[in-house]
Amino acid sequence: MLALGIETSCDETSVALVDDAGRILANVIASQAQAHALYGGVVPEVAARAHLENLPGTFEEALRRAGVKLEDVALVGATAGPGLIGALLVGLSAAKAIAFARGLPLVPVNHLEGHLFSPYLRENGEPALPVVYPFHGLVVSGGHAELVRVEKDRITPLARTRDDAPGEAFDKVARRAGLGYPGGPIIDRIAARGDGSRFPLPVGRPADGSDDFSFSGLKTAMLREFEKRSVDGSPADPDLLSADLVDLFASFQRAVVSALSERVETVHAREGIRRLALSGGVAANSELRASLAEWGRVESVPVLLPDRSFTTDNAAMIAWAGLLRFRQEGSRDFVGVNARSRWPLGT
Questions:
Q1: CA-CA distance, 52 to 216, in Å (whole number)?
Q2: What span, in angstroms and rounded, lies between the C-alpha atoms of 145 and 147?
Q3: Fewer Cβ within 10 Å of end Cβ, the chain: N or C?
Q4: Over the stretch 111-135, which tens digit does the pLDDT of each residue have?
C-alpha cells in the first residue's frame, strides 16, 4: 500500500510518498522560513498563500522523485490539525479532492501524532523501525510540548504546554536579542560554546504542582537579563556576542532541557518508561538529544532520536502516521473530516 502524505499545518509545504513498510520514496519540503523571517515569526495569511503557490509543484516533484504515478497511490493521509486553519485547509482540501477523484481512503492525521511516530522512520529508503507498544513520546516543537504514553489503541496525555512552548520561547528570546528567526538553531549554535551552568535561570512548573510544562517564566527572566545588559533587539551577529551573553544563552538552553528532562524522570519514577521517543522541531537541539540519550543509558531505557531531517514539519511522518492509523481504524467519511486549529494528542 503506497501512501500519499500532505502537510500544510504551518510554514512548510510538504508532500511525501511512503510504502507500507515505512520506506520513504519521496519527501519534498518547500520551506517558507525566508518569507516569515522578516516578521520574526509565522504570519498566517502569508503561510496560507504560500501553501497555495507551493503545493502543486511540491506534489509533482514528489511523484517524480518517487518514480510513481498518482494511479499507484492507495491511501491519502493529510494533516487536519492542529495548526493554522488557513494553512491546514489548503492541504486538507487537496487531499479530499484527490481521494474523492481516485476513490481512495482518506485519513485525517493529527500533526502531533505524525511527530510522535517520526523517530521510527529511517533515511535512505530503509524500512521504518518496528513500532513496539507501549512507549512514551516526548513531542517538543514551536507550538507544543507533550509527554504521552502510547499504547496500541490509545494515547494518554501525561504533561502538556500551559503557556509558551519550548520552540516558541527560543524564537521569542532570539528575536528580542536581535538574532533572527528561527531562534532554536541559532541559540543551539551559540550555546555550544558557552557555560550553561553559569546563570541559575528558573525551571518553571505550573502553580498547581502538575507535571505540565511552563516556559513563560523562563522567557520573562531572559527578557529581564537582556534589560540589564541593554539588549534591545538591534540586529546582532551570533558569532560576535560577548562571553557573558554566550553563557546566558547557554544557561537558557540548559533550563529548557532541564525542564523537559525532569518531567521525563518524574514519569519514569511513577510508572516506568520502557522506551522513549523524542520528536518535534526542538528534537534537533543538540543538548536535548545528548541529555536524553545519556538519561536512557543510565536508566537502561532505549531512547529513539529522530533523524534531524524528520524533526521539521514534513509529509513523510504524516503518510506514516496515516498508514498506522488506517491499519487500526480504516478511513474516515469525507463529510466528517474538518480542519482543527486545536487537537490535543489522545482526543
A1: 34
A2: 7
A3: C
A4: 999 999 999 999 989 999 999 999 9
For 292, the grid coordinates are: 536524553
Model confidence pLDDT, tens digit, residues 278-299: 999 999 999 999 999 999 999 9
Overall average pLDDT of the 178-185 stretch: 92
Which secondary-structure segment (H or E) carries 14?
strand 12-18
Quick check: 178 and 235 in contact, CB under 8 A? yes
Residue with cell 503557490: 53
Q: How far is CA 120 from CA 237, 287, 323, in A?
A: 37, 21, 13
Angle (CA) 280 284 287, round 5°: 120
Instruction: Tell me which residue has cell 487537537.
Output: 343
| pLDDT attached to residue 206 | 74
- Asked whether 79 and 96 are in contact (CB, 8 A), the reply is no
Greatest CA separation for the chain: 62
Contacts of 300 (CB under 8 A, 6+ apart): none
